[in-house]
């Protein structure tokens, strides 16, 4: 049996044994077992394709394969066969992360081959490879692999996660890399045919404070500026910043293709929750830049492993550039297709202490708008309540202009709190997506996003709005029951 069929068979058998208690209703997951980074997020022949790192044989990380889903609308996803399995000379021990491009009707995957020289000591080398498909389903690795056999001479062995795009008639590739002195950086290559690559040089690198390795780079133009997205490893936490084990963020600046000069500002985190990593974007045929990330975090507690599966991707988000070169992320407009039934609970109502909306539904979208112009309260917010003690709490502290997400009573007992600055001008608008084991928060039209996995054990009681030490006028509170796309 070939390796793809074997992987498919393993997933089919593992799927029968899954405990579904935390299975998500409207997010991309593997059919069973482990998944991590999104890969090859692309539009091809009118459909959206997302690939992802997966291990078909275990709920823990292992030899990486590429899982595959597609969708016509970014909402309803369909599982396709595993796209890549490791074990060839070019990818002995793993088909690591990468990207996809439509090369004149040929769907081309560009990925990292992983090779252990001593697995016990985690010694390895990495190279870059290509696989092609004309039907968007079955892929063939090209005979020329590896298309980039070695990293630059001044490089450490970390050399992975190619993101490829076309500018004019030339293909470009950014790669995550590290110097021999453990300085994280992104390096750049170019090619006329996707097979023969020329090293151009360093696109950007750490000033010493941004970690030892920059994973999962993505580089693109947005509203006249150039954005480099990276997932640095090894940044030390600093107050409310950089509290996850690894971070994902961006640099904004100006880029010159002729000189390969990228002049940029400082690093900014992209999402301030617990579980957001390895973001990848595509430019779709509507001209939107759309991002999707891994909705988990390395070395965090992952209770679903015991249930026979692990890992999910975030909702797709449209990226725009706001004031002061700040990236805004908002749910793609198609997500309204998930809405099953609408409940308008109140408009222009003053609340003090709390206001409970009872609903047992576990797949919800909530919109809450607080008028802060004459607000006497010290803080306002909303809770997703269980029937007894469980709750996921989102609090806005008016004096500090700080938004806090507390998941410590919903399965993140240790390290359950994340906070971030949010300057509000007269109102706080929250758009919140709750799935069986996740929460995604979009505040004030994407000024802040917070994404976290949660693991409640109790039945849902409802949504509670609350204030502390004063009253607040609620302009609107609406919620929608959402469809389960996997049923």
TrEMBL record:
The keyword Amino-acid biosynthesis does not apply. Its EC number is 3.2.1.26. Transmembrane segments: none annotated. One of its GO terms (cellular component) is cytoplasm. Keywords: Carbohydrate metabolism, Cytoplasm, Glycosidase, Hydrolase. Residues 352-481 form the Glycosyl hydrolase family 32 C-terminal domain. One of its GO terms (biological process) is carbohydrate metabolic process. It catalyses: Hydrolysis of terminal non-reducing beta-D-fructofuranoside residues in beta-D-fructofuranosides. PANTHER family: BETA-FRUCTOSIDASE (PTHR43101:SF1). NCBIfam families: scrB_fam (TIGR01322). Belongs to the glycosyl hydrolase 32 family. This is Sucrose-6-phosphate hydrolase. It comes from Peribacillus frigoritolerans.
């Amino acid at each position: 049996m070939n390796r793809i069929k074997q992987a498919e068979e393993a997933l089919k058998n593992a799927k029968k044994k899954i405990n579904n208690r935390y299975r998500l209703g409207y997010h991309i997951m593997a059919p069973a077992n482990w998944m991590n980074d999104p890969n090859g997020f692309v539009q091809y022949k009118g459909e959206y394709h997302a690939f992802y790192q997966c291990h078909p044989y275990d709920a823990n990380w292992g030899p990486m394969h590429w899982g595959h889903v597609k969708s016509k609308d970014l909402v309803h996803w369909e599982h396709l066969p595993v796209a890549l399995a490791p074990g060839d000379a070019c990818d002995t021990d793993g088909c690591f992360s990468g990207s996809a491009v439509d090369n004149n009707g040929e769907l081309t995957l560009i990925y990292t081959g992983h090779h252990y020289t001593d697995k016990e000591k985690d010694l390895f080398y990495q190279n870059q490879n290509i696989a092609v498909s004309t039907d968007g389903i079955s892929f063939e690795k090209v005979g020329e692999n590896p298309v980039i056999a070695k990293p630059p001479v001044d490089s450490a062995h970390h050399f992975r996660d190619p993101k490829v795009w076309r500018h004019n008639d030339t293909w470009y590739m950014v790669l995550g890399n590290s110097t021999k002195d453990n300085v994280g950086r992104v390096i750049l290559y170019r090619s006329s045919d996707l097979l023969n690559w020329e090293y151009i040089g360093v696109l950007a690198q750490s000033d010493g404070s941004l970690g030892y390795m920059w994973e999962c780079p993505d580089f693109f133009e947005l509203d006249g500026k150039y954005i480099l997205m990276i997932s640095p490893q090894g940044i030390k936490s600093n107050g409310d910043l950089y509290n996850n084990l690894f971070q994902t963020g961006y640099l904004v600046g100006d880029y010159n293709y002729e000189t390969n000069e990228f002049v940029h500002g400082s690093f900014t985190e992209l999402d301030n929750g617990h579980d957001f990593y390895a973001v990848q974007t595509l430019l779709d045929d509507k001209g939107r830049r759309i991002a999707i990330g891994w909705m988990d975090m390395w070395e965090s507690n992952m209770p679903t492993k015991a249930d026979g599966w692990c890992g999910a991707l975030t909702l797709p988000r449209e990226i725009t550039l706001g004031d002061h070169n700040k990236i805004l992320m908002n749910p793609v407009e198609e997500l309204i297709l998930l809405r099953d039934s609408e409940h308008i609970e109140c408009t222009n109502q003053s609340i003090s202490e709390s206001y409970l909306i009872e609903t047992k539904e576990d797949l919800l979208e909530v919109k809450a708008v607080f008028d802060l112009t004459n607000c006497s309260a010290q803080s306002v917010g909303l809770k997703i309540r269980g029937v007894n003690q469980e709750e996921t709490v989102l609090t806005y502290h008016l004096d500090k202009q700080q938004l806090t997400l507390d998941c410590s009573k919903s399965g993140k007992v240790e390290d359950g709190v994340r906070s971030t600055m949010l300057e509000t001008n007269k109102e706080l608008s929250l758009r919140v997506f709750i799935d069986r084991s996740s929460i995604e928060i979009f505040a004030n039209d994407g000024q802040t996003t917070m994404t976290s996995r949660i693991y409640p054990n109790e039945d849902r009681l409802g949504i509670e709005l609350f204030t502390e030490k004063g009253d607040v006028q609620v302009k609107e509170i609406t919620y929608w029951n959402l469809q389960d796309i996997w049923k």
